[in-house]
Design goal:
alpha/beta, 48% helix, 318 residues, 9 strands, two-stranded antiparallel sheet, TIM Barrel
Length: 318
């Protein structure tokens, strides 16, 4: 989960020279950052990109403001705002991501698989509506409930862009794809099934025809696991709040699961982090179809040596 980042000295050195968007938009730099964590022993590489990259070609410009995260210049809140958004083809405005995938695959030379990804419709739409990060998603939920047609129209546009983007990533060489729904855990099950599930299913039903693993991930989704399963994906991501064995029983053993170490455990004493990683493996019980992973993204303060120790422990097994 976000393998590369500020916990690595190599990445910090690169960020001292380039902005986040410059790295994303320069395939050679995206290649460099994607490869950086592999020295720690990861079993797969994760494309370095950002879930908000489709916003720009859709007509919703944004920037990463220091200390604030992403800031959408003109939040999407009216019928005119939604109507102005374009349904873009991946090669039109996102070609640099596809070029990066091709470069990375060539560099990996078949030795390490590459995972591509995109943001899910609710998470992307909430950024667009709120204008940036939010703790309550108040404006998003207000539109969802008071103007459902407008909300569905926005979600439809976003989901079609994401569907095309994931398909293009696989065509460019991604050997698995993940759909990130980082903020969907703010919704009740009824709201998820009514306002989100149809749009996610539109994406994942197509991705599941491409012959690669399709990971469906969200955070805070302990009440949504069955609905997420029904929306699609061959792998269901599980965050650390739900025991892995309980989550797996709920989604069904015909699905693979990914997870679910609390990323902040990597800040704990190394022996504690290693033991908790082994506990995740014990909970999986050796059943085929478990991808060990963090329950969300790695944080910048994480010691690299602890990451390496956990990876080695996972490779060694319980």
């Amino acid at each position: 989960m976000r393998q590369a980042g500020r916990y690595m000295a190599e990445y910090r050195a690169l960020r001292a020279k380039h902005t986040m968007l410059e790295i994303c938009k320069t395939p050679e730099l995206a290649l460099e950052v994607t490869l950086q964590p592999l020295r720690l022993g990861m079993d797969a590489a994760i494309l370095f990109a950002d879930i908000l990259l489709p916003l720009e070609p859709m007509g919703a410009s944004f920037e990463f403001a220091k200390g604030e995260g992403p800031v959408i210049h003109h939040p999407v809140r009216t019928r005119a705002d939604v109507d102005r958004l374009r349904i873009c083809d991946p090669e039109d405005g996102l070609g640099y991501v596809l070029d990066a995938i091709r470069l990375i695959r060539k560099e990996l030379d078949g030795k390490t698989p590459l995972i591509g990804f995109a943001g899910a419709p609710f998470t992307i739409a909430s950024y667009m509506i709120e204008g940036g990060k939010s703790s309550s998603y108040q404006t998003t939920k207000k539109m969802m409930w008071s103007e459902p047609e407008l909300f569905h129209d926005l979600m439809s546009k976003v989901s079609e862009v994401v569907r095309r983007f994931l398909r293009a990533q696989v065509a460019a060489g991604a050997q698995a794809v993940q759909l990130f729904d980082s903020w969907v855990g703010s919704l009740a099950v009824e709201d998820y099934r009514t306002y989100v599930q149809p749009h996610v299913a539109h994406i994942l039903s197509d991705a599941m025809t491409l012959g690669v693993p399709v990971i469906h991930f969200g955070t805070g989704t302990s009440t949504l696991l069955e609905a997420q399963r029904d929306a699609g994906g061959t792998v269901i991501g599980v965050d650390w709040r739900t025991p892995l064995d309980q989550a797996w029983a709920r989604v069904g053993y015909d699905k693979a699961v990914q997870g679910n170490l609390d990323p902040l455990l990597l800040l704990a004493p190394r022996d504690v982090a290693v033991e908790r990683a082994r506990a995740v493996l014990r909970t999986a019980g050796g059943r085929p179809g478990h991808i060990f992973n963090l329950g969300h993204g790695i944080v910048p303060e994480t010691p690299v040596d602890t990451v390496k120790a956990v990876i080695d422990a996972v490779h060694a097994g319980v």
